[in-house]
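Record type: monomer structure entry
Structure origin: computed from sequence
Chain ID: A
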Amino acid sequence: MIFVGVDGGTSHMESVVIDASGAVLGRGRGGPSNHPLGSGMHPHVSDHLVSAIGEALAAARLTASDVTAVSLNLSGRREELTIAHARAWLAPLGLTPTCQIEVSEDHLSAWAAAGFPDPAIWVLLGTHWGSGGIVDGRVVDHPLDCAGLDQDNAALAEGAVIGSLAISAALRSQLGGPPTRLYAALCTSLGVEGIEDLIRWARAHTGSDQRASLCALTAQVAQEGDAVARELFRRAGEGLGAATVTMGRYLGVATRPATIVLAGQVWQAGEILLEPFRRTVLAGLLQAVVHLNRLAQAHGAALLAMRLARIAPGDDVFARLAAS
């Protein structure tokens, strides 16, 4: 039996092919699932899915007729994530009529990669951020999603926002603001010289994925001790923590055990972000356990495909995936 999982975001999508033992047989990569300038699906999402899955199957020396189940976990507009759309997107692959297909938002793959904990709160942190939870098998949206705001300043932690804040701090440092090594680091990394060049670069690169590309550099400067850069991550961690506490109280887990699942590349900033997040969360959710995912979300999507085929992934499956 062969299972395919796809995790898709604003910058790209990844595909993993596994067998029933959890062995990774192939991996693939394609373009984004949602449009970088909006919440809708990318106009070429089908091409991106076919490319990512096709590459993974080719690496595994398999064909679409070998696939038992596919789980698509994609960012984008929720109302477009339907089985009908998924089947249409995947039609060029030539999957068999018996192949099972499911599609959902990308947070479920992060939850699955953590081992299906319940109750749980997931905090996805990449180009953008998202959070939700599960309790007694029921998926619960974040209560502040309806506000159209920044969810207790949690948006400060998005990779795109951190990149924009880094540009702002760098420019201010040359115009009477607090000194920071971000200015020199950005100029070197972007190949620009002087404040006017940096301003021109920023005006020409306003896309969320372009701004998010500066997050790792900002984290490096912060890890080297730069006070301004560190402050960006402190505020980000505390804002995310406050939003997570709000979610936990909404789920009714303020005083009961719950797993906080962290997934996404921005968490690679390490303790400069994790420490203020963990401190804020544990002050409000007294029995919470913070779990930083080691498995990629594409692996989680493959585990969801196994569950779709009514196979419960055991500890041996997680061990094989972790070692792959």
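Annotation 1: DSSP finds twelve helices and ten strands in the chain.
Annotation 2: The radius of gyration is 20 Å.
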